[in-house]
Specification:
- GO terms for molecular function: hydrolase activity.
- This protein folds into two domains: about 1-60; about 70-165.
- About 50% of the residues lie in helices and about 20% in strands.
- It has three helices and four strands.
- It starts with a helix and ends in a 5-residue tail after the last strand.
């Protein structure tokens, strides 16, 4: 009789313990399923973002000297190496920032702060045009610049169009 009661208690104990373990595993499984679902959604979102960035990169490459075969061929036919020419053009354009405060050779706007108008960023579009940002620290704008390398290997810049953003501050 004691053996029967002991066996019954042991079986009940095993049942309750197994049930708790099973519930704990089911809880963990549901937690992991939620995490997997979240990670799958993040993966889909990241893949969409990667696709958008790839498209954006492709679109940006459409207007870049380094990605324009026609523009590179133009300079290579004249004996220039693109790897040397691009930094040279950018350096020459940045050197215009060392002009007097109110007399920038390319930026047609006078500074409206204590700073001076300086070219911040440059994008060489092709063998003839450059887009550049400029700022005096508070006000900023953009420039469309034409450039040419003369027979004497001098670089000449000509402002085509510019605009200054109006600050609402």
């Amino acid at each position: 009789m004691y053996l029967f009661i002991f066996t019954l208690l042991f079986v009940v104990f095993q049942y309750v313990n197994s049930k708790k373990i099973l519930e704990e595993y089911e809880s963990k499984i549901s937690t992991y399923e939620e995490k997997v679902s979240t990670l799958e959604q993040n993966l889909v979102d990241n893949q969409e973002m990667i696709a958008q960035l790839e498209e954006r990169t492709f679109n940006m490459a459409q207007f870049s000297l380094e990605d324009s075969d026609a523009a590179m061929t133009y300079f290579e036919d004249q004996g220039y190496r693109i790897s040397d020419l691009v930094p040279f053009i950018k350096d020459q354009l940045y050197e215009t920032n060392f002009a007097e405060r109110d007399n920038h050779p390319i930026v047609p706007y006078a500074p409206m702060t204590d700073g001076k108008m300086m070219i911040d960023a440059i994008r060489i579009l092709n063998h003839k045009w450059i887009i550049a940002n400029f700022s005096d620290g508070k006000y900023w704008g953009e420039l469309l610049i034409s450039y040419e390398i003369t027979a004497e290997k001098e670089l000449k810049f000509e402002l085509i169009k510019s605009f200054l953003y109006v600050s609402n501050i």
